[in-house]
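Hey,

Quick one before I head out. I ran the complex with flavin mononucleotide overnight. Inputs first:
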Amino acid sequence: MTETMRDRLRRISVFANAGPIDVKESELPENPVPMVAEWILAAHAAGQPEPHAMSLCTVGAGGLPSSRVLLVKDIDSDRLFFATPADSRKGVDIASNPHVAAHFYWPATGRQVRLTGTASGLDRDASERDFAERGRGSRLAAHLHRPGPLPDRRTAHEEFERLDALHADRVPCPPSWTLYAITPAEVEFWQASTDRVHHRVRYLRENPRGTAGDTVWKRELLWP
Ligand SMILES: Cc1cc2nc3c(=O)[nH]c(=O)nc-3n(C[C@H](O)[C@H](O)[C@H](O)COP(=O)(O)O)c2cc1C
């Protein structure tokens, strides 16, 4: 008998790396943001490819959500940073509605982190610094960004070659290139457990408008 898609999906094993890493309540920090950084590094150490890849969900002016994967470029005590053109779909969405949701999943450690918060673009200096730290290929690729459809693949390759020759010495930062910061208001950590009694810990920012220095987080465990 032919196996259906339903059968195939249901036979795929999950949470192969559940536990033994535990979420110890006594060791939970006051501030969840540095813990996101620690979980990225733990996933990297456990062999997770691209552990800093994060899905980002934005909401457009029409109220419709859209998500995509981005690389997190830095994390400080209060914010996560990523870079993208301001005239991309996500950039346009954020300009009209700064509320975002973001998400990481690391099969290598059986963990996920989800967060909601607000995103805002940083100034030109910060964006240009981010751009300058990128490899040449990535900098040239940033110049390939255009809103609207691409007629065919060849056009993109030819444009890449043209840009490569044009910027032989130095690739300038495109005016739309922007470093964004997400300031989380809510962060939830999830750790798979072999006994299926998975761990969930939610942090809620008590003072949404507070700055990093005076932020107070409320922490609570959630049912699995
Ligand atoms: C692993 C991975 C990493 C990515 N990193 C970035 C990134 O850092 N910045 C970016 O603009 N796009 C990145 N992309 C491409 C985005 O997912 C997306 O296709 C692109 O930014 C257009 O998104 P938008 O039309 O929703 O604005 C990445 C894609 C993948 C799969």
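The pocket of flavin mononucleotide is lined by residues 50, 53, 66, 68-71, 82-84, 88-90 (CB under 6 Å).

Talk tomorrow,
K.
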